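Supplementary Methods. Inverse-folding protocol.

Structures were first reduced to a discrete structure-token string of length 682. This string, shown here, constituted the complete conditioning input.
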């Protein structure tokens, strides 16, 4: 067999092939497409950005903002390659200060997906909608209804590149990559509100309020364990023309993988040099194979940065790289050196049976045996210092059964409306509800019980409240720090399941309007409301109508009474003498509408019980008190209820789930045996 040695003919590639090859460089996966679209939203001066995805962004990837919008006259070329409003000539790259500049994002996406743009500027009388294929509109833009801003919908990503689509990870992993991009931009752009959800689901995967701070958004996205250990970093160098600000974790926190959020001139990038430099600093403070959390924002003179060195703009080049890395590392080292004196160490492994969960089998409490000598005397290091049966004078304070203003009145909403508690006595004949869904939920609670923590809570001695969130309890010779709200959420959830359909009633002295409560909740930053969601009054009316349609079920099963005028008249009575903090009532009304899965019975009952448990377990918030005296009074009353009502109820009702052995809900902070070992060394 002979092979031809003739030279092959060189031909010009078809324009469609060229564009699809270029699109594959810019849009490598759904997360890359979302990053480009997010940057366009931020360039448009948006204050609220909402992202909806389906199947990890492969089926649907939709992003909506309330920015400046796109002019109708520009819709004809907006998806063509190298069409941009941010660049006029090549020298403009030296002073580029926006995210997008090449005009390739929308063009690339339109060549590998079905793209639809719905947009409206402030001068337009209506919105305009246009669908694109291979960079060209399928038809002229059509007028339609819409809010100011732009909504871009990407459907069937990589429908015409089957190899690329097959090479991608599972939808769950692609969704995780999308969530990572949104969360990182949410931390850096704290003044902008972000939300991410899957299409067809009521709950959101991520929501950050507008006008927040990076610290608060880190708490929302990455959790309190990181947020509580953050140290601020900042410096500037006129010689290098660089400014740096950020947050890094101190020596108390470490994780198995380094998490670094790096923004250079507000662009999310990665830099191996900066990462290695900072990790080299932490090597002197953290144990081996552990890493920090890093958030840094570098502002470098635009003429010193080349942002056009990577197709996805994931990397940038900048002058004086080694000097800047050294300056950043020095700033981190100085901050850690100054904070090293306040290092603390959690001893979660001292919890009974926490390390033996995976092994199964019979479990034994660490405090079960108490060493004695031959004469029966208990050694000093095994003495229990307090007795749970001792009576305290504080038990009889902050309580007056004949006073309607304390135990029998609720401070309702910001309008200063009050409600009197009139619990309905439990009937002598208890209703028997044979609901399979409730039985399944109770079985789930029983099978996940951790016997070691259950023994601690059943036989503990209450020491005192640290604040509204933390308390100290003693079990035998060990002292534990507990998170009251976390434990109470589990307890109230279980009470709601065990007493399902048999609750007493807390009646309000004056009914509260559901629509007014909803508007009060939407005024709060944690609600995540934005103008794109519609007016607060219309949303309040919708929430009122929706809950009224569920009134019969809520009253029958949960003792939540709603009258024919849409007023909330009562809530369930769960623990004797306990009245929840009413500042959370407006948010409860909204969350019963938005966070409850009303489609299936079991999910519905589970989510309603979870939302009610969250409400009942919430302590009073200082910002809702008008004066220091009111704040002090509310705090002392909550501390009394914590000691005299909540922790006795925890002792009686709570079956602690196994995950409490691994989080920070209950921490062993001191043990008499170990303290004596320390004294013996001295």
């Amino acid at each position: 067999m002979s092979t031809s040695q003739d030279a092959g003919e060189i031909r010009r590639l078809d324009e469609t092939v060229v564009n699809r090859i270029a699109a594959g460089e810019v849009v490598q996966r759904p997360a890359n497409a979302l990053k480009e679209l997010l940057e366009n939203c931020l360039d448009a001066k948006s204050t609220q950005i909402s992202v909806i995805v389906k199947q990890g962004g492969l089926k649907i990837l939709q992003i909506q903002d309330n920015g400046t919008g796109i002019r109708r006259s520009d819709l004809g070329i907006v998806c063509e390659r190298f069409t941009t409003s941010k660049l006029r000539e090549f020298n403009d790259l030296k002073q580029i200060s926006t995210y997008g500049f090449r005009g390739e994002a929308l063009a690339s996406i339109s060549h590998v997906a079905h793209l639809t743009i719905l947009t409206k500027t402030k001068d337009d009388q209506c919105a305009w909608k246009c669908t694109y294929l291979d960079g060209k509109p399928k038809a002229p833009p059509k007028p339609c209804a819409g809010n100011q801003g732009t909504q871009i919908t990407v459907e069937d990503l990589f429908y015409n590149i089957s190899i690329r689509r097959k090479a991608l990870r599972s939808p769950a992993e692609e969704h995780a990559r999308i969530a990572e991009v949104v969360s990182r931009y949410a931390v850096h752009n704290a003044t902008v509100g972000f939300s991410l959800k899957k299409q067809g689901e009521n709950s959101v995967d991520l929501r950050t309020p507008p006008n927040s701070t990076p610290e608060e958004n880190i708490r929302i996205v990455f959790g309190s364990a990181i947020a509580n250990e953050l140290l601020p970093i900042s410096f500037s160098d006129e010689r290098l023309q660089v400014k740096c600000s950020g947050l890094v974790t101190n020596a108390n926190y470490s994780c198995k993988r380094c998490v670094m959020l790096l923004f250079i001139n507000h662009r999310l990038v990665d830099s191996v040099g900066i990462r290695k430099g900072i990790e080299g600093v932490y090597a002197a403070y953290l144990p081996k194979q552990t890493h920090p959390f890093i958030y840094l924002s570098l502002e470098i003179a635009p003429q010193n940065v080349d942002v056009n060195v990577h197709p996805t703009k994931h990397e940038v080049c900048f002058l004086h790289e080694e000097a800047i890395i050294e300056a950043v590392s020095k700033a981190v080292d100085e901050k850690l050196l100054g904070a090293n004196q306040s290092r603390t160490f959690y001893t979660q492994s001292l919890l009974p049976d926490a390390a033996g969960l995976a092994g199964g089998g019979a479990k034994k409490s660490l405090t079960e045996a108490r060493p004695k000598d031959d004469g029966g005397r208990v050694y000093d290091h095994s003495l229990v210092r307090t007795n749970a049966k001792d009576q305290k004078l504080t038990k009889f304070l902050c309580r007056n059964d004949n006073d309607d203003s304390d135990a029998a009145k609720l401070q309702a909403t910001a309008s200063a409306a009050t409600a009197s508690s009139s619990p309905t006595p439990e009937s002598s004949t208890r209703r028997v509800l044979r609901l399979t869904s409730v039985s399944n939920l109770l079985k789930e609670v029983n099978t996940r019980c951790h016997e070691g923590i259950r023994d601690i809570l059943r036989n503990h001695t209450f020491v005192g409240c640290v604040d509204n969130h933390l308390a100290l309890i003693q079990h035998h010779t060990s002292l534990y720090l507990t998170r009251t709200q976390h434990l109470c959420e589990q307890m109230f959830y279980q009470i709601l399941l065990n007493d399902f359909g048999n609750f007493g009633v807390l009646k309000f002295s004056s009914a509260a309007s559901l629509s007014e409560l909803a508007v009060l909740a939407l005024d709060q930053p944690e609600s995540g409301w934005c103008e794109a969601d519609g007016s607060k009054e219309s949303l309040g009316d919708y929430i009122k109508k929706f809950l009224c349609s569920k009134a019969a079920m809520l009253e029958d099963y949960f003792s939540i009474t709603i009258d024919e005028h849409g007023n909330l008249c009562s809530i369930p009575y769960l623990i004797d003498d306990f009245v929840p903090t009413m500042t959370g009532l407006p948010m409860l009304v909204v969350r019963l509408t938005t966070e409850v899965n009303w489609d299936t019975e079991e999910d519905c009952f589970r989510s309603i019980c979870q939302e009610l448990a969250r409400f009942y377990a919430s302590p009073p918030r200082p910002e809702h008190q008008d004066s220091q005296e009111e704040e002090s009074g509310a705090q002392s009353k909550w501390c009394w209820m914590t000691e005299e009502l909540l922790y006795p109820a925890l002792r009686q009702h709570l079956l602690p789930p196994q995950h409490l052995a691994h989080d920070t809900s209950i921490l062993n902070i001191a043990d008499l045996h170990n303290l004596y070992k320390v004294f013996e060394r001295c």
